[in-house]
Every structure is written in structure tokens, then in C-alpha cells.
Amino acid sequence: MIGAYVDHHIKKHPQQDMIDRGFNWIKCEPFSIADCWIFRFDSELNNPPDYLVRISDDFKFSGED
Question: Which has the closest alpha carbon to 9: 57, 49, 38, 58?
Fold first, then answer.
């Protein structure tokens, strides 16, 4: 979240920015030690902002087998 502001000049909370862009996530989890959140979206994102980085499609959230 800090990186969205410092590196990408997003002046509102990144989650609010994603809501304003119409992105719908179905699950998310914070990873405070890395100052990031991991999101699972309900569809492919069109024109995602630079502060979002795609990770592995097989990522498992806490509690998922």
C-alpha cells in the first residue's frame, strides 16, 4: 500500500482505487511483513494499475488446501 503511493502516486487507498475501477475480488489476504495484500479477482483485469503484480495462478490462501 505504501508502494502504491510512493512508487505510483496513488493518493487514495489502493483498495478504494480498485473499487473505483470496478475490479471485483472474491478473496484477499494481507501480508503485513511485505506491506502487501494478495487478491483473487472474479475475472481477468483489463488495464490493471502498475501497483498490481500478477503472481502464480496456483497461490493458496491461508486455510486452502
Answer: 49
| Alpha-carbon gap, residue 60 to 65, rounded angstroms | 7
Q: What is the pLDDT of residues 10-36, one digit of tens each?
A: 888 888 989 999 999 999 999 888 878
Q: Which three cell numbers stand for residue 52?
A: 498490481
Per-residue pLDDT, 46: 87
A 10 A CB-CB count for 58 gives 5
Cα 1 from Cα 51, distance rounded (Å): 9
Interatomic CA distance for residues 30 and 18, integer angstroms: 16
Q: What predicted TM-score, i.e. pTM, was given to this entire model? A: 0.77
